[in-house]
Design goal:
The complex is a heterodimer of chains A (128) and B (161). Chain A is of the alpha/beta class and 128 residues long. Chain A is 41% helix and 20% strand. Chain A contains 5 helices and 5 strands, in the order βαβαβαβαβα. With 161 residues, chain B is of the alpha+beta class. Classes of the chains: A alpha/beta (128), B alpha+beta (161).
């Protein structure tokens, strides 16, 4: 089964890296959408249905925390699993993002295998 | 973002063996895991700095300070190629810079979270730097890569009591 993924990160090279490691890990992509901040992500989500959202936290315009808050108040989008990918590995931050509704939290650095495992977990083991 | 020197600098006791170990081990793990290259802590030779790509990340919160990164041109090409999965000849100067900034961001986050797991620290956006001299810092380490070298410095202060 192939999935549609939305990557939200203000760094274009990080978005390219995530796309690359998903392919390297054998994760089956049907469609890969991108946004450089939370606001762009909400626009994309208004136009496309995705299976999972991968989001950074620190971004201009709308950060990952606010994006999670907005998703949590949307009747449809709150059911889309969100995986946070961040350099911030502090306990407070992780707990806060999980409390806002994130299904998982990955800290950088991460390997292609770790990303695939987390994607499989939040998607309920339906990949591969 | 706080500037360095606002409060007391770290004491010798704080820069213990455990911190030195983390500062040697964590960057090598980052480079291996996300940049697909090996890095070994090496003796410092700073003659390559003049042409290096340099960046820094400021941080503030329960610890405040900065981390600086210098990457030799050979290492910058190698790291950017591996990170993006492209040939070195396909790299533009802008792509190379963006990857070095991302490396600085990841290194800073990883090192800080290992140094002080219970801290509350916010990272600033990584920025390019013209490094004219070798900075003085609480911790410094040079690494040898298969292609080129990188060097890291981190300096911090604790909140005023």
């Amino acid at each position: 089964m192939a999935y549609s993924v939305l990557i939200v990160d203000d760094s274009p090279v990080m978005r390219a890296f995530i796309r690359r490691v998903m392919a390297l890990s054998g994760f089956e992509l049907r469609e890969c959408l991108e946004a450089s901040n939370g606001l762009e992500a909400l626009t994309q989500l208004g136009e496309h249905r995705v299976d999972v959202i991968l989001t950074d936290i620190n971004m201009p315009t709308m950060n990952g925390e606010e994006l999670l808050r907005r998703l949590g108040t949307d009747g449809v989008l709150k059911s889309v699993p969100t995986l946070v990918i961040s350099t911030d590995a502090t306990r407070d931050r992780i707990l806060r993002m999980l409390a806002l509704g994130a299904e998982g939290y990955m800290t950088k650095p991460f390997s292609p295998e770790t990303l695939r495992e987390e994607l499989e977990r939040v998607l309920g083991g339906r990949n591969g | 973002m706080a500037e360095l020197g606002a409060v007391a600098a770290p004491t010798g006791a704080e820069v213990g063996e455990q911190l030195i170990d983390i500062f040697s081990r964590v960057p090598a793990e980052v480079l291996e895991t996300m940049f697909f290259t090996e890095a070994a802590a090496s003796p410092c030779t700073h003659d390559w700095f003049a042409d290096a790509v340099a960046a820094r990340v400021l941080f503030a919160g329960s610890h405040a300070g900065e981390m600086r990164l210098s990457v030799s041109l050979e290492a910058a090409d190698s790291i950017a190629s591996a990170f993006l999965g492209v040939e070195a000849c396909e790299l533009t100067p802008a792509l190379r810079v963006q990857v070095v900034l991302e490396l600085a961001n990841i290194l800073c986050g990883a090192v800080l979270s290992h140094l002080w797991p219970e801290s509350k620290v916010a990272l600033g956006a990584p920025e390019m730097l013209v490094q004219e001299s070798v900075p003085a810092a609480a911790l410094h380490r040079c690494f040898e890569l298969p292609e080129g070298k990188i060097a890291l410095w981190i300096d911090w202060s604790l909140p005023a009591a």
